[in-house]
Amino acid sequence: MHTVAFPNKILPYLLVAPQIILTVVFFFWPASQAIYQSTLREDPFGLKSGFVGLANFSAVLADPNYLSSLQVTVVFIVLTALVSMGVALLLATTADKVVRGQTLYRTLLIWPYAVAPAVAGMLWLFMFNPAMGTLAYLLRRNGFGWDPLLNGDQAMALIVVAAAWKQISYNFLFFVAGLQAIPKSLIEAASIDGARGTRRFWTIVFPLLAPTTFFLLVVNTVYAFFDTFGIIHAVTGGGPAKATETLVYKVYNDGFVNLNLGSSAAQSVILMIIVIALTAFQFRFVEKRVHYG
Fold first, then answer.
1. Which of 11, 17, 194, 215 is paired with 277 by a 20 to 30 Å CA distance?
2. Which pLDDT does position 108 carry in this prediction?
3. Rounded to an integer, what distance in angstroms lies between the CA atom of residue 254 and that of residue 257?
């Protein structure tokens, strides 16, 4: 086994120093400050604060609005992950069959990933705005009462579609790479054995995509938790009547809008624990069903 020898003992530490500094400054330091602030009760102007221990956590977990936001978050994450991964897998399998113009099709499908979350939200808001949106006009013209500003279910559907559309390109890249890594001889052998179309996909192709699917499941879960803030803020602002107020948006509302800093910090700590626990659960139990060839 070949090993790399560095000319001196300091060089390896210098090479990893930038990453360590970034991690400490932008993750560990803010996380420690959030944990510390979650044990305090501060006035909105930050003039005085007092140590209250776990009182903020108790108040948050007993708050019906927080439990409602938790339910909204679960629905949003499940729908966003299913839609974005499902559509991306469909597009990847279709693009994999294209012989002429593969590069062009794949480039066009990747473009949406370059769009910022807030911009993606505004694009869908303009199209489905009940006052001036073209698609909203078509829906109302065909007898569908479309108004996401008043209907919570419609607002949820709108942000799910916007968030999924933003993430489809990312998922598409990995699914295409996973499909290209599958030996063509296996597909040909399955065809010779009589496996056709859908059956061949679910019995041969999809099981071999399990590592890619598992990776994307973890990534899409974290994405739906945190990176969709800009979409929700631009499209619904957590409304109507908190129907689209996810946990991360409630942290923003309570901390920056209502200036309840202690409660907001406690919520951010709980959110961090939830994400870590969920990711650990996925690696501990879901990964067991993943076959690495």
1. 17
2. 77
3. 6
Residue 139: Cβ-neighbour burial (10 angstroms; 0-12, 13-18, 19+) = middle
pLDDT tens, position by position, 178-218: 888 888 777 777 777 666 777 888 888 888 888 889 889 98
- DSSP assignments along 222-248, one per residue: HIIIIITHHHHHHHTTT-STTTT--HH
Cβ contacts of residue 94 below 8 Å, gap of 6+? none
Q: Which helix (H) or strand (E) holds 259?
A: none
* Choice between 9 and 126, residue whose per-residue pLDDT is larger: 126
Answering whether pTM is above 0.85, one says yes
Q: What is the dihedral of CA 129, 135, 140, 142, to 10 degrees?
A: -170
Superfamily of domain 64-289, CATH level 4: MetI-like (1.10.3720.10)
